[in-house]
């Protein structure tokens, strides 16, 4: 269970790296493929907001029921809500750019950078504070209990799974082909 969540984090971290690179290019007035940014946000909404975060909420909820730590549970839930809002806001801005509506570039760059920082801080918080707590206290029987409930919550990853969804084909090609990523806008 934690292995899959950590794998998700690794994948998300890579996508955040792509966004960082796009912000860097925009700052230097270089061409950027906004459809890729849009795909990343779409993935974050389709997979992270709808599967990864709910699994974490449920898993940590179980932990707290048994071992109590209401403070962290509240923070986790609030952060997940904030991240979903950040996805919505950035998705809106990128849709405007793709529709040729005027979006001030410095503002957009700042929004992407703030988004990346927020997402990275969240990953770090979970890796350093949430996962270790569960790992320390959960025994075999705890895992068996939560796994029955959590396994159905996992949907197929539309980007990183073997097949992947057709709509993410371009993004998949981009992240799988480093040489392409280097020269592509
Ligand atoms: Fe999370
Ligand atoms: Fe997470």
TrEMBL record:
Pfam families: Hemerythrin. GO terms for cellular component: plasma membrane. Residues 3-134 form the Hemerythrin-like domain. This is Hemerythrin. PANTHER family: BLL2471 PROTEIN-RELATED (PTHR39966), HEMERYTHRIN-LIKE DOMAIN-CONTAINING PROTEIN (PTHR39966:SF1).
């Amino acid at each position: 269970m934690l292995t899959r969540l950590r794998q998700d984090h690794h994948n998300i971290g890579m996508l955040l790296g792509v966004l960082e690179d796009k912000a860097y290019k925009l700052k230097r007035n270089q061409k950027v493929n906004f459809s890729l940014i849009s795909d990343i946000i779409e993935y974050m909404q389709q997979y992270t907001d709808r599967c990864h975060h709910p699994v974490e909420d449920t898993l940590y909820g179980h932990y707290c029921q048994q071992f109590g730590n209401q403070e962290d549970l509240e923070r986790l839930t609030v952060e997940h809500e904030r991240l979903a809002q950040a996805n919505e806001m950035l998705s809106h801005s990128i849709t405007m750019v793709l529709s040729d509506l005027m979006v001030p570039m410095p503002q957009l760059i700042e929004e992407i950078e703030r988004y990346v920082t927020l997402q990275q801080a969240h990953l770090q918080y979970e890796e350093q504070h949430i996962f270790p707590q569960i790992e320390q206290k959960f025994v075999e029987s705890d895992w068996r209990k939560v796994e029955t409930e959590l396994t159905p919550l996992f949907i197929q990853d539309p980007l990183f799974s073997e097949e992947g969804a057709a709509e993410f084909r371009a993004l998949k090609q981009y992240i799988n082909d480093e040489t392409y990523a280097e020269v592509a806008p």
